[in-house]
Design a protein that fits this description.
Order of helices and strands: HHEEEHEHHEHEHEHEHHEHEHH
Shape: globular
Radius of gyration: 21 Å
CATH architecture of the largest domain: 3-Layer(aba) Sandwich
CATH superfamily of the largest domain: P-loop containing nucleotide triphosphate hydrolases
CATH class of the largest domain: Alpha Beta
Distance between the termini: 27 Å
Structural class: alpha/beta
Strand content: 15-25%
CATH topology of the largest domain: Rossmann fold
Number of helices: 13
Amino acid sequence: MNGATGITHLTDRQPKVTPERLVAQLVPPPTFADVAFDTYRPDPGEPSQAAAVKLCQQFCDEAVLRRAGRKKMFGKREVLPGVGVYLDGGFGVGKTHLLASTYYRLSAADTGPAAFATFGELTQLAGVFGFVECIDLLADYVVVCIDEFELDDPGNTTLISRLLSALVERGVSIAATSNTLPEQLGEGRFAAQDFMREIAALSQIFTTVRIEGPDYRHRDLPPAPQLPSDEEVRARAAGVAGATLDDFDALCAHLATMHPSRYQALIEGVSEVFITGVHPLDDQSVALRLVSLTDRLYDAGIPVTASGSKIDTVFSEEMLAGGYRKKYLRATSRLLALTHAGRE
């Protein structure tokens, strides 16, 4: 226990994730449970956003036609190869909204189930079921939607590229998103080219859609606030049903005891997360685990209240200058949104 009677702690939880649960989790997160193309609100000043909606809708139409279409070859009827769309853009421009809308449109098309997963969840699925078995598992799906396709792990990227190539051959369409820095458009386009090069077998069927715009999570939000004291955080946590309270270092150590695929189960049923003693990190492995937890908290819409250093200083300048820059900036963006939600 961390000092407050009756308050639970994430560090006391040891969630288990079964193969059946991994399959059941192939749906958009709660934050995007009710989205649709019609609920996406393009920024009038960013025509690429309205264009992205149309292109995603066209992708859905083509995916249905190709899944339902058949061609006769050597006396056998074969499924046409799937199609692909890659949503490339900065933080908070609505890529996941469009990806989830794609999922819902195609899951209602009566041409097969749809799957939605983060890149990490998909690699875990392949690890649990095995490469060939995972292909067989997903081959009946009309589309596999992958949020935050990652290029920083060559092994996993190669694994998923081979998996997607096999799925496309069996008629499964692929939709994916990835982040680029909004202030570095050239680097953003280079990231899209990197993606295509890594999955060379799929490059001919992917349509790259660039989405411009500012981070909607930060519109009209003030800068990162000065955080409350440890005592204030503990007092607030005591008054929130279903909340958890943890020391920052203890929580980071606990995250190291489990695979990130279990983080969603770790926060299941939690109403708000309270953390004391937040401070800048100097260990890359610890930082990346915090990124994974932040993504799951954001997906679940769970507010965060923290004490210690300001949220936008957790990832050091040295880290932000390295190869995981995009991940850390995304996590900072999401943490700021969650901590503001916790203060409302």
